[in-house]
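Reopening this one. Same input as before:
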Amino acid sequence: MTTPAASGTTPAPIRAGVVGIGWAGQQHMAAFHAAPGVELVAIAGQEDDVRTELAETYGPIDTYRDWQDLVARGDLDVVSVAVPTFLHAPIAIAALEAGAHVLSEKPIARTGDEGQAMVDAARASGRVLDVVFNHRRRGDMEAIRAAVEDGTIGRPYHARALWLRRAGIPALGSWFTNAAASGGGPLVDLGVHVLDWTLHIMGEPRVTAVSAVTHAELGPRGLGGSTGTKSGTGSAYEVEDLAAVLLRLEGGGSIVLETSWATHRATPDQFGLTLYGTEGGADLNVVDYAPAGDLTIYTGDGEEAKDTVIEAVEGRAHEAVVESFLATVADPSTWAAHDGSVGLSRARIVDAAYASAAAGREVRLDADQRIIEEQA
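Same output, byte for byte:
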């Protein structure tokens, strides 16, 4: 591990490794490569041709086919985990135990219990564990959050949030559609983003109860996606393709969340947020993954409306997430506050949504966002 520089000398560079060489992993690589004071020294991934190409792009770096070999080096300061969800916990825990700080793609893990094991490992090692929630870094999301913080919207009390696709199952038969590998369908894949940006914008209210339904109407029939090239097990379609969730919040607030991989709806894909507050509201609609969506802030005294169209700047997504992660790593006084707890809370709420859908009833959550077992 890199040791702190002596006073008056140049700090040693932060040594970074990335596990996963798909789209997400490549976002981490580019951000580490561009960050001052950071050296991308190692990557790991199964695809030989991609790994070779990336080594040529970012070389000289060490490359590995197996993540265990990268972690076993023991000289990495930070490790990014950008692989299928079932691998998040074992890789993150091993890297933390090896002394590295960890940045994991969302969701933190397949379940809250796996996420808890990751958080426990971060606390035991005294290292940082952050989860990538890049959509809250969008300029339009930050603009809504600013309108909450400066009082323009007042106290937010209800939100409608969504991410809907027409035919966007990531890859039929891949790890995405295998329940054991992914932990679920669009709710755990897209919905965890929707949940994160909504709770973040609303000021992190505690969720007290969850009522959810899930549907699997298109995916099991081979509709709404392609076979693709993503890694997998040749699985049958085992997860939902649409989920709808009602969240009750402490203090009486509420959120309605809807997410799908495949639905008979208008194209292209759409995500966004409608927020109602005591002094104003906001409506954000993002179509076809535009870098900045259509955002309007609504205020007025009830008789005279005032609508303000906001031209939000483009966010910096993964680049901003990696920069914040590196800033945290550089400041030991902040490490304890970055132990993965936010990602864990999101996982607990997703667990509750799946439990509610399976049971056909509302489930209640305690202060740690764990399901309260009902007495018979």
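So the earlier flakiness isn't reproducible anymore. For the record, The chain has a mean pLDDT of 95.
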